[in-house]
Design brief:
Keywords: Hydrolase
CATH architecture: 3-Layer(aba) Sandwich
Structural class: alpha/beta
InterPro entries: AB_hydrolase_3, AB_hydrolase_fold, GDXG_lipolytic_enzyme
Order of helices and strands: HEEEHEHHEHEHHHHEHEEH
Largest sheet: 9 strands, mixed
Protein name: Alpha/beta hydrolase fold-3 domain-containing protein
GO biological process, one term: monocarboxylic acid biosynthetic process
Number of helices: 11
Radius of gyration: 19 Å
Organism: Penicillium nalgiovense
Distance between the termini: 49 Å
CATH class: Alpha Beta
Strand content: 15-25%
Number of domains: 1
Length: 356
């Protein structure tokens, strides 16, 4: 990345992150406790160690289950069918936000599929933990859940990923990093008996080769309607995209913003074919600077369906809404656009999980 002035220090960014996190947490609280119908609360919290990342630490996982279907039943008189698992990654530009922010999405899934288990990942945040730590925390989570599948009665072949905004980018990029990790000898016992069943993403970033100004130019209404200021965008980018840790072009020290771990929409076809599940759904927002790149990637994947290389690609443009519209507190008014998007996404999960 090129800076016209020296980049801000990590301590300066951390101080800003603390303030932004307080504000976003307040908005999330209003949505979770003062907007009807109230979403569910996590039923279980488990901290797991990070192993894939070179940066040691722990990852907090929040499990959402239907009240009648707890994660660990006290009494089990008969063996139950293995449960499908949705692993979710929250938004917030990789620097703010929390796993509980997507409680309403989790509740929508559980209402349709009470047997499901939703795992919302509180991956470690930049600027304290910039790229690639959030990506690697996602890989660690999937591997841990696969290893614990028998204990918790998870169906290893019905793991789906979801995410919004930055979390959508993670959901789209994690399969690449997961594939790389699974090639190592220590995971030989998992290969052959596991698979991702699908991806459901909401307004993701898919092409980091474009600057924020270039992204706005692809959809001129976006800067007029956006709730995100240019200064916040700059903070988020400075926090996550620490130049020293970004991928480089082979044989050079030049940062490669087209790398699939950053820009999944630009991944080569061979990598997509090797790592992606058969079904994907991508939802975009009409008043979003990420509209065009998200639509372009959905259309590209749709071409694989026509060629018989994927089973289904869904999703649509939610017109007349801004990035993150579904996270705004609705209080007593509800949010019809959000409900329509979530309901359609839930229908795609039925295909991914092969539910009759």
């Amino acid at each position: 990345m090129a800076y016209t002035s020296p980049p801000p220090s990590r301590s300066t960014l951390s101080n800003k992150a603390h303030r932004y996190r307080i504000l976003l947490n307040l908005r999330s609280l209003l949505d979770r406790y003062l907007s009807w119908p109230l979403p569910p609360r996590p039923s279980v919290e488990i901290a797991i160690p990070s192993k894939v990342s070179k940066t040691p630490g722990s990852i907090q996982l929040y499990f959402f289950t239907a009240p009648s279907k707890p994660l660990c039943p006290r009494k089990q008189t008969k063996k139950l069918p293995p449960r499908p698992v949705l692993i979710n990654f929250h938004g917030g530009g990789f620097s703010i936000g929390h796993a509980r922010d997507d409680s309403r999405w989790a509740g929508t899934v559980l209402k349709a599929y009470p047997d499901a288990v939703i795992v919302s990942v509180n991956y470690r945040l930049a600027p304290e933990r910039p790229f690639p730590v959030p990506l690697e925390d996602g890989v660690d989570t999937i591997l841990w859940l696969w290893q614990e599948a028998q204990k918790y009665n998870f169906d290893k072949t019905r793991f789906t990923l979801s995410g919004a905004s930055a979390g959508g980018n993670l959901a789209l990029a994690i399969p690449f990093r997961l594939h790389e990790e699974l090639q190592k000898k220590r995971w030989a016992s998992l290969r052959g008996e596991i698979a991702l069943a699908g991806l459901v993403v909401f307004y993701p970033s898919t092409d980091w080769t474009r600057t924020r100004i270039e992204r706005d130019a692809t959809n001129p209404i976006a800067p007029q309607k956006s709730m995100i200021s240019p200064s916040l965008f700059k903070f988020l980018d400075d926090s996550y995209l620490l130049p020293a840790g970004l991928p480089k072009r082979p044989g050079t020290e030049r940062v490669d913003m087209s790398h699939p771990y950053l820009s999944p929409g630009l991944a080569p076809e061979s990598l997509l074919q090797a790592t992606y599940p058969p079904s994907v759904a991508i939802y975009t927002c009409g008043w979003d600077q990420l509209l065009v790149e998200g639509n372009t990637f959905r259309e590209r994947l749709g071409g694989f369906v026509e060629e018989g290389k994927m089973v289904g690609v869904g999703g649509f443009v939610v017109e007349d809404v801004v990035h993150g519209f579904d996270k705004k507190p609705s209080f007593w008014k509800g949010n019809e656009a959000r409900d329509r998007m979530y309901d359609d996404a839930v229908n795609h999960l039925k295909l991914m999980w092969k539910i009759e």
